[in-house]
Amino acid sequence: MAKTEKSAIPKDFESALHELETLVADLESGRLQLEAALTAYKRGSFLAAWCQKTLDEADQQVKVLDDGMLRDLPGEPDDD
Known about the structure:
This protein is mostly helical. It contains 2 helices and no strands. It has helices at 13-29, 34-65. The longest helix has 32 residues, at 34-65.
């Protein structure tokens, strides 16, 4: 985890998601030593929170663009 610091902001959502997927695979492999695993976990937690914030912001933009009304996408079943 030498090239990325815990607080380094991802350039975009897709990059963050890719990095998070890589970290999860590394952690699941069991090949990381304890210190590296802790660093990967901390970075993964940061990335997961950053991705959630980004998704929440996108959701708010959609609500604004759709006059505050969330509507089902055409062809999707109704959740009710």
